[in-house]
Amino acid sequence: MSNVKGKVVVITGASSGIGEATARLLAEHGAHVVIGARRVDRLEALASSIRSEGGSVEYHALDVTQLEEMQTIVELVLSRYGRLDVIVNNAGVMPLSPLEARKVDEWNRMIDVNIRGVLHGIAVGLPVMKEQGSGQFINIASIGAYAVTPTASVYCATKYAVRAISEGLRQEVGADIRVTLVSPGVTESELAESISDDEARELMKDYRRISIPATAIAQSILYAINQPAEVDVNEIVVRPTASMA
């Protein structure tokens, strides 16, 4: 993986699931990974594990809804490595519920993390990448960015937004910066644990019986980063083979 080795990669939402699997895989292939999430104890344990395997990793507390915290982690990257090659905007939440349940606080949380968090990553990373003349944004969406399902209206809306933002960014940045949208189908993660609505929780239990491992998504991210600089993999959809949706 010659195009991955030595690259400096920021990964948000790295304390579990896709973010954790991606950090492990990229470090294994020689990337310098900088991991951020709110659960610092999880980050510390992950960093220790990566270092024990010979990987390069730094970690910092990160709430992606706070622009200044995203700025802080990028400043850490620049002070440590002098460049920023990739931002994986992975942090996300999925508290599903029917609209009639009127869980407005949960709607707002999804908007803040799933949309605003991605925008904050772009806002902080783009000037750095433009100045250095290269870089890549990898935004994690969902198959919910392509079709809406009951109880997932707001969640899908946030992922449609990530898809739209990613395409707009791709068209705006020109030839030097790559933009990749990765849309996982049902994947093993802690996302479903945030569902407070009983009906949505039961539906998700059945839906998740065919989950694929988070490592499958990490492999897709690795693939996108590893392409030659002139190759921009724009969209990757990864579903369980048994999935009908």
UniProtKB/TrEMBL annotation:
Keywords: Oxidoreductase. InterPro entries: KR_dom, NAD(P)-bd_dom_sf, Sc_DH/Rdtase_CS, SDR_fam. Residues 7-187 form the Ketoreductase domain. Transmembrane segments: none annotated. Belongs to the short-chain dehydrogenases/reductases (SDR) family. PANTHER family: DEHYDROGENASE/REDUCTASE SDR FAMILY MEMBER 11 (PTHR43115), DEHYDROGENASE_REDUCTASE SDR FAMILY MEMBER 11 (PTHR43115:SF4). This is NADP-dependent 3-hydroxy acid dehydrogenase YdfG.
